[in-house]
Amino acid sequence: KPVIAIVGRPNVGKSTIFNRIVGERISIVEDVAGVTRDRIYSSADWLTHEFNIIDTGGIDIGDEPFLDQIREQAEIAMDEADVIIFMTNGREGVTLADEQVAKILYKTKKPVVLAVNKIDNPDMRDMIYDFYSLGFGDPFPISGSHGLGLGDLLDEAAKHFPEQDEVEYDENVIKFSLIGRPNVGKSSLVNAFLGDDRVIVSDVAGTTRDAIDSEYEYDGQEYVIIDTAGMRKKGKVYESTEKYSVLRALRAIERSDVVLVVLNGEEGIQEQDKKIAGYAHQAGKAVIIVMNKWDAVDKDEKTMNEKTKEIREQFQFLDYAPIVFTSAKTGKRVHNLLPVINRVSENHAMRIQSSILNEVISDAVARNPAPTDKGRRLRIYYATQVAIKPPTFVVFVNDPELMHFTYERFLENRIRDTFEFEGTPIRIITRARD
Ligand code: GDP
Question: What family does this chain come from, according to its entry (predicted)?
Answer without folding.
Answer: Belongs to the TRAFAC class TrmE-Era-EngA-EngB-Septin-like GTPase superfamily. EngA (Der) GTPase family.
